[in-house]
Amino acid sequence: MNMRKVKVDLIDPFKEEVTRTEVEQHNVTQIQKLIGCDCFCLGVRLDDHVVYVDDEGLFPGHAEQGDFKLGFMISLDGQKWSQLLFGRGLVEKGLPDGSSDDADIDYIVKFFRINRGLIR
User: Fold this and answer.
1) What backbone phi and psi angles, to 5 degrees, belong to 66?
2) How far is CA 47 from the centre of its chain?
3) Are 19 and 103 in contact (CB under 8 A)?
4) How far apart are CA 16 and CA 3, in angstroms?
5) Distance of CA 119 to CAs 6, 16, 64, Å?
6) Which residue from 69, 70, 28 is spatially nearest to 52, judged by alpha carbons?
7) Residue 59 has pLDDT above 90, yes or no
8) Which residues have a Cβ under 8 Å from the Cβ of 33 and sit 6 or more positions away?
């Protein structure tokens, strides 16, 4: 059975960039590979869109580069910001029937590098 591909945005704090890519609907393995984790969760909702993130992003060995934890915050309007999310994120449109569609929302991303010693 062929699954429909949807366009998603990959938020990468390691490269400090957002790129457009495609995944098959409901393909957990592809999402895990893009985010770079074994376990992911819904980090935040943006209207009818969802941002999936590494569920273990705060654990030691995850979302780290040298002495820093890497993450991002996301906002629709530049006024209300999400909590700080660690690791990569994946934005896709969530439909009421549980399926997904192409990400088609405008948002703002701020990248962060935080010294690991400040996170307890």
Assistant:
1) 65, -130
2) 15
3) no
4) 30
5) 35, 21, 12
6) 28
7) no
8) none
Q: How many Å is the Cα radius of gyration of the chain?
A: 14
What lies within 8 Å, CB to CB, of 45 at 6+ separation is 51, 94
User: pLDDT at residue 22 above 80?
Assistant: yes
30-57 pLDDT, tens digit per residue, is: 999 999 999 999 999 999 999 999 999 8
Return the pLDDT at 1: 54
3-state SS, one letter per residue, for the chain:
CCCCEEEEEEEECCCCEEEEEEEECCCHHHHHHHHCCCCEEEEEEECCEEEEEECCCCCCCCCEECCEEEEEEEECCCCCCCCCEECCEEEEEECCCCCEECCCCCCEEEEEEEEHHHCC
**Taking the domains of the chain in order of start, what are their residue ranges?**
5-95+105-118
